[in-house]
Each structure stands twice: as structure tokens, then as C-alpha cells.
Amino acid sequence: MMDVNVLHEKLKKSQGALGYYFNKDKERVFELLEGLLRNKARYGYMACPCRLASGDRQADRDIICPCVYRAPDVEDFGSCYCNLYVSKAWNDATSHHEYVPERRPPEKMTF
């Protein structure tokens, strides 16, 4: 299994280049990254650790991190659902930290 520190550096570089930043709460970030690695070991893909994956890659493709909901969540709320990826303003506390509602359609959450 990949080391959580290696994953952190890899994602920090690739996602930062796209304008997405890790939450400044490093403990939270590492808990979420460990969850991604557990899901990769369990399912073969890094399903969002804040959602229940089915184990079917095709059915879960919308919640493979970074999920398809990240961009609209960060745009609308400054943070993704998990609070893993955030905007610079969110980290700088120049924007409000609002609850990020679940965007995944309920029919995708039934197995």
C-alpha cells in the first residue's frame, strides 16, 4: 500500500496546480488520505472516504477521489463534502465555512 506521506505530496502537487488545496487541518487531511488508501486496498480504487462505496468501480465512478462533486462544492461552499479539498479563501478564513450538502443523487447510494 502506498505511504500516506507519498500520497499527500503527489496530490498536493497535482491538485494544487488545478487550484485545489488541502484543508489546513493536517490531521483531518491525513485521516482522509488514510481512508482513501484503505478504500484503494479494499476496492482497487480511491473511493471517497466520506461516502459508502459499493465496490463496483463503474457505479462508484462519481465518488472516486477527486469526485465529480468537488468542483461545484468548492465553487459554492469553498470546500468539498469531506473538507479535504478547499479553496484558498476557505483556508485563509476569508470565506464562511458552511455545511456542504451531499450532492450525490440518492439513487446512487442504494446497493
SSE layout:
Elements: H1 4-16, E1 21-22, H2 26-43, H3 70-77, E2 85-86, H4 88-91
Antiparallel strand pairs: 1-2
Helix pairs in contact: 1-2
- In oligomeric terms, what are we looking at? single chain
Could you give the order of strands across the largest sheet? 1-2
The count of strands amounts to 2
Low-confidence stretches: none
Instruction: Determine Rg (CA atoms, Å).
Output: 14 Å
Mean pLDDT across all amino acids = 93
The outline comes out as globular
Class from secondary-structure proportions: mainly alpha
State the major sheet: 2 strands, antiparallel
The ordered string of helix (H) and strand (E) elements is HEHHEH
Q: What percent of residues are in strands? A: under 5%
- The number of helical runs is 4
Helix content: 25-40%
- Give the terminus-to-terminus CA distance: 27 Å
Describe the structure.
The chain is mainly α. It has 4 helices and 2 strands, in the order αβααβα. It has helices at residues 4-16, 26-43, 70-77, 88-91, and strands spanning 21-22, 85-86. It has a two-stranded antiparallel sheet with strand order 1-2. The longest helix has 18 residues, at 26-43. The mean pLDDT is 93.
